[in-house]
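Q: Got a minute? One more chain.
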Amino acid sequence: MAISCNSMRPQEGRRSEPAAASSSQPAPADLAAGHGAPPAPSAPAGPPGLASPPGAAAGRTTAEAIAASAGAFLEGLDQGSRGLAQLAFEGSEREDWHYVPRRRAGLALGDMDDRERGAAHALLRAGLSPEGYRKLEGVLLLEGILGGIEGSPAFRDPGRYHVAVFGQPGRQDPWGLRFEGHHISLNFTSAGHAVATTPAFLGANPAEVPSGPRKGLRVLAVEEDLGRAFLASLTPAQRQRAVIAPTAPLDLVTAASRRAALPGFDGLPAAEMTPAQRAALVRLLEVYARNFPDDVAHGHLHRIERAGVERLHFAWAGSAAPKQSHYYRIHGPTHLIEYDNRGGDHIHTVFRDLQDDFGDSLLARHLQEGHGAPAGRRP
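A: Always. Here it is, folded:
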C-alpha cells in the first residue's frame, strides 16, 4: 500500500469537474533517460556587497518566456477567475509553500475550462525543460493513480493543483508564479530580465506504479537510481564518511521551510572523491538543475562550479537496498538537494538555492541596480 502524505483534507469550492490527467505520459524508459552536460556559460560578478549572481543571471530567455505566457494566461481568464489566479506580490502568501494536500490560493486546474488549462500548461512548459515538464505530468498522473489505490479519487484529484501569479508579469516590476498541489511546488520569481526558480519540489507516490495500465512507471527513476549507484561507487572508507545515519528521516530535513538552513556540511566531501566520482556527483546534481530550461540550468551549474565542486558534500541515510527507506542530499555553498524515500515507495525531492530561494538575491540586486536601494535589502 502506498504511503500518503499526512494532512487535513481541504474543503474547497469547485465550479467545474476535475480535469483529467494528461494521457500523453512518458514511458518509464523515457523518464529514466540520461542527461547531457553542455558546458555552463560564464556569468559576470555582481556588485560588491551582494551574493554571487543568482541562477537567474543566465535566465533571460526563460524570464521573457514565462512573462509572456503568464500574461496570456491571465488575459484569457474571466474577471472572477483572474481574481483567484492573480494575487499581490507583496505579503507572505508568495512564500507560503508546501507539498501536502491542503487549501491553496490561486486557480485550480479543475476549475479551468479546456482553453484555460491549455494556457496554464503552456505557462508550465515555458518555465520547465521538456524533461521537467514530463516529470510534472507524471506527478499529476500519479495523483489519480494514488486515488485509485487509496479509494479516494475525490481527495487525490489531479485537478486540485493551483496556478497563482503574484503581481503583474513583465520586466518593469518584480512578479512571481507558483504551481502547487500534492507533491508539486514550483516557485518562480522574476525581476528585469532574470528569473529565480526555487524552491522546486517534486514527489512521487507510488514511486513505482504496482499494477494497471501504467504498471512499472517510475516518474522519478533517475533521481533514485543515480543516487543509489553513486553510493555503490564509494569505497568502504568513503562510504563510512557518506552514511550519516542507519535510518532515513521521515521527510526532507528542511521540509517546507522558508529558508533551507542546515547546521553544517555532513557526509563525504567531493574533495575526497576521485575525478570519476566527482563527475558522477555532478551528473546526479544536473538531474535536478535540468528540470529547468538550459539558460536557467546553466546559471545554477555555473555558480556551483564557481563556488567549487570540491566543496559539495554527499550524505546518505537508511538502506542501500531497493524498496527500503533511504535518503540522500547534496549540499554545497550555493545549493542544496534533498531526496527522501519513505518505505521505498514514496519519494520527496527538493532543489533549493541557498542564496536565491524566492528570488532573495535577485530582488536585492534588482533594488540596488534599478532603484538605488542598499545591498541586501528586500522588498
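A: The CA atoms of residues 99 and 183 lie 5 Å apart.
Q: Perfect, thanks.
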